[in-house]
Amino acid sequence: MTYGDSPAEALEMAHEAVEGHLEVLVSQKQGIPEPLAKIKASKVAP
């Protein structure tokens, strides 16, 4: 969950949170998960 003084600021903060999470995954040599849209699409398409 994130917040900001405006929707745009909240979105920017959410992007920063995701970026920070990905940096931690990389630093701990963990895999970066596939985007959910890609996973859902692969289940539908053969």
Structural write-up:
With 46 residues, the chain is mainly alpha-helical. The protein has one domain (7-44). Helices cover 65% and strands 0% of the residues. The chain contains 2 helices and no strands. The chain has helices spanning 7-27, 36-44. The longest helix has 21 residues, at 7-27. The protein is flat and about 40 Å long. The mean pLDDT is 85.
- Helix content, binned percent: 55-70%
The oligomerization state is single chain
Which class do the helix and strand fractions yield? Answer: mainly alpha
The count of helical stretches stands at 2
Proportion of residues in extended strands: under 5%
Q: Report the major sheet.
A: none
Keyphrases for this structure?
0% strand, 2 helices, 46 residues, single chain, mainly alpha
Task: Write a short abstract of this structure.
By secondary structure, this protein is mainly alpha-helical. The protein is built from two helices and no strands. It has one domain.
Which helices and strands appear, and what pairs or packs with what?
Elements lengths: L6 H21 L8 H9 L2
